[in-house]
Amino acid sequence: MFCYQCSQTARGSACTNAGVCGKNATVARLQDNLIFSMKGISAYNYHCKELGVSDESVDEFLTKGLYTTLTNVNFDIGDLVQLALDSGEANFKVMKMLKEAHIENFGEPVPAEVKVGAQEGPGILVTGHDLKALEELLKQCEGTDVKVYTHSEMLPAHGYPELAKYESLAGQLGGSWIDQRKVFADYNVAILGTTNCVLPPKDAYADRLFTMDIVKIPGAQVIEDYDFKPLIDKAIELGGLEAEELSTISTGFGLSTILSLAPKIKELVLEGKIKRFFLVAGCDSPNPRMSYYREFVENVPEDCIVLTLACNKFRFNNLELGDIEGIPRLLDLGQCNDAIVAIELAVALCELFEMELNDLPLTIVLSWMEQKAAAILWTLLYLGKTDMFIGPVLPAWANDDILNVLVENFNLTPISTPKEDIKKVMG
Ligand code: SF4
Ligand code: SF3
C-alpha cells in the first residue's frame, strides 16, 4: 500500500505496510481501485455533460465513492468490493448515456472504409475521444482547404454520418496513442489533443500542438470555448502535406448494423460455420507483451469472428481476416466507451440463442492501460461476465487477496501465450 493522504502518515512520508489509522493494505488497494474506476467514469461523464446529458445516480455514486475513501470512513474489505461492482454499474449507465448522446448528435455509426495516409494540402490531426470537439472543428474548417485527420481513438468518428458528411474529414494518420511522438513529428500538420493520452511534446512539433478545455500539457497551446481559429491558422501557415500512398481500415460497426445481420449470424452459428466470437479489446501500451494481441487475432480459428473496440485494435486492424459468408471476421465497434455496444450486442446474442451471458460462445480478451479500462472491467464483472482474459500485465494495485476474489468469483485469467489461450477456449 501507499497512502499519504493525512497528517498521521508514517514517518511523515507515507504508510506503506499498514496505516497508522488502522487501514490495512487490502483496504488501501481497494480504495485506490475505487478511485481509479471513478476516474474512468468521470471521463465519460464529462463528455456526457459536454453533450448536455447527465444522470443523477452517476453523480451521486461519484460523490459517495470519493467520500468512502476519506480518512477513517470505511475499512470494510466486503463493502469496498461491492462499491467496486457498483462503480461497474455506474460506468454501465454512463457509457450507455454517452452512446445515446453520440447517436442523438451524430447519428448511429455505419461501416466506413477510412483512408490511411497523407493527402495533399494543409492538415489538422485530431487525437482523443471527444467527438463534439471534432464536430466543432469540422464546422469551422468549412470553406478552407484544410483536411482533418483522425488519430488513435478518434478513428471511429468516420462511422458517424453527421461527422462523415463534412468534406474536410479526410482520413486517419498513425495508429494508437503510443505512436504519437513519431507520427506528430513526421507529419507537418497542426495537432489537437482532445482528451487523455497526450504526451508532453517533443521539440519537433511542440509549436504546433494544441490541447483544449480540461486537457493541458506543458508546451502546448490551449483552445478555449471551441474557438479553433488558432489551430486552423496554424495548419494553413504550415503549408501542405505531400500525398502519400493510401491504405484503408474499416470502422463503424454500430449495433443496428450488426443486428441487421442477426438472422444470417444465427444461421451460420447453427450450421457450425461460426464457432465463437472473440472480443479483443482495450488499451494499447508500449509494453512488449502487447504483441500478444496481434498474435492472438492472427491465430483465431477461421470459423470465428473478432470484435474489437478502443485503441488496442491498432495492434491488428490492418490484418486481412476476410469474411464468413459475407459477415466480416473483424468488426470495429468503436472507442473504449463503446464497450457498451459490445455489451448490448452480447445481450442481443443471449436473446437470439436463448442463452445466459456466460453460456454464449463469446470470449473476452482485454488489455488495460489506464483508469477507463478499470471502470470497464468492473462493468463486465458487475454484469457477471466470467472467464475473461486480461493483460498485458495484472493491475499493480490488486494484491493477492484482491486477485483471489477476481479469480475465484470470476475466473479472471492473466494472458499466457496466444496459442495456449486459444487452445484453452476452443478445447
Ligand atoms: Fe496512513 Fe491512514 Fe493517514 Fe493513509 S489515511 S496516510 S493509511 S494514517
Ligand atoms: Fe486508448 Fe488512452 Fe485506453 Fe480509450 S486512448 S482506450 S489507452
Automatic annotation (TrEMBL):
Binds 1 hybrid [4Fe-2O-2S] cluster. It comes from the Archaea. It catalyses: A + NH4(+) + H2O = hydroxylamine + AH2 + H(+). One of its GO terms (molecular function) is 4 iron, 4 sulfur cluster binding. Its cofactor is hybrid [4Fe-2O-2S] cluster; [4Fe-4S] cluster. It is found in: Cytoplasm. GO terms for cellular component: cytoplasm. Coiled coil: none annotated. [4Fe-4S] cluster binds at residues 3, 6, 15, 21. Gene3D superfamilies: 1.20.1270.20, 3.40.50.2030. Belongs to the HCP family. Catalyzes the reduction of hydroxylamine to form NH(3) and H(2)O. PANTHER family: HYDROXYLAMINE REDUCTASE (PTHR30109:SF0). This is Hydroxylamine reductase. It comes from Methanobrevibacter ruminantium (strain ATCC 35063 / DSM 1093 / JCM 13430 / OCM 146 / M1) (Methanobacterium ruminantium). The lineage of its organism: Archaea, Methanobacteriati, Methanobacteriota, Methanomada group, Methanobacteria. The gene is hcp.
